[in-house]
Amino acid sequence: MLYVVATPIGNLGDVTVRAIDVLKSVDRIAAEDTRRTRQLLSHLGIVGKPVDSLHEHSSARDVERLVEHLQAGQSIALVTDAGTPAVSDPGEALVKASIAAGVRVVPLPGPSAVLAALVASGLASGSGFRFVGFLPREGTERRAAIALVCETPEPVILYESPERTKATLRDLADAMPERPACVARELTKMHEEIVRGPLSDLAEKDGWRGEIAIVLGAWSPASHAESIGEAEIDARIDRELEGGTHAKAVAERIAAWSGRPKREIYERVVRRKSSSR
Predict the structure, then answer these.
(1) DSSP tag of 84
(2) Which residue stretches, if any, does this entry annotate as coiled coil (predicted)?
(3) C-alpha angle 98/87/18, rounded to 5°?
(4) Are strands 51-53 and 28-31 parallel, antiparallel or unpaired?
(5) Are the beta carbons of 6 and 85 closer than 8 angstroms?
(6) How far apart are CA 149 and CA 256, in angstroms?
């Protein structure tokens, strides 16, 4: 069997009794970071357990070897750096391969940065939520992902590295300045910090550190679109074009911000660009 084992996201006291029992009983462990996992095992008094590396750069053959162990009758515990494996995590490949091979997959629920950030944010709603993981770093894919976030009325949760948190908050605030948000940093750890406010305020903050989750509150794209007048759209198109941004990128950015169809905005951008020459 493949056990998908949630481990603490910071505070080691959050490990479950069942997780400890499984980590002790399995034949081997597949870990995103073997050093970090061995530290956890040492803390739990588990020694001599084979620990295999399974990270974002692991090959398909690495996954196959683990599946071969499972098919040979061994049991494996899949763990990630922290929290629940296979959620925006390389362990997803092993879960899919195990299912395809007819291996039983057993989940062990426990710590989750997604849920911890959501419940602490005060932004949860009865309509559910969307988890998007890490946004693409740049280009069309990033703009498309931000546009999807803008179109999502339910709360949205995403992860970000501390180095890119300010840039991501700025991009989100550029599209939805008044959307309520929360940055949850170093959850369950000594320096835990939970900062709440509109995106426009959070985007001004510097010095983000540690593991970060961003929660965006419920949002009404239609109401937001209605509040933006035609002159405001034209003024922003002109500002973006003056800054040297390519017409297509301008259209994608303003469509996300205004809630208008991208094709409509693109045609508008082209017209204003031509008239300014």
Answers:
(1) S
(2) none
(3) 70
(4) parallel
(5) yes
(6) 9
Q: What are phi and psi of 80, to 5 degrees?
A: -110, -175
**Residue 105 to residue 1: CA distance in whole angstroms:** 6
Sequential pLDDT tens for the chain (277 residues): 999 999 999 999 999 999 999 999 999 999 999 999 999 999 999 999 999 999 999 999 999 999 999 999 999 999 999 999 988 888 999 999 999 999 999 999 999 999 999 999 999 988 899 999 999 998 889 988 998 998 899 999 999 999 999 999 999 998 899 999 999 999 999 999 999 999 999 999 999 999 999 999 998 877 766 777 788 888 888 887 887 778 888 888 788 777 778 788 888 888 887 877 6
Which of 81, 59, 56, 69 has the alpha carbon at shortest distance from 28?
69
Closest-CA residue to 238 (of 250, 228, 225): 250
Q: Which residue has the tokens 């008239």?
A: 275
d(C-alpha 149, C-alpha 274), whole Å: 31
Q: How far is CA 49 from the centre of its chain?
A: 31
Q: ∠ at Cα 199 (197, 203), nearest 5°?
A: 105
H/E stretch holding 52: strand 51-53
With 0-12 CB in 10 A as exposed, 13-18 as middle and 19+ as buried, what is 110? middle
The pTM of the full predicted model, rounded to 2 decimals, is: 0.81
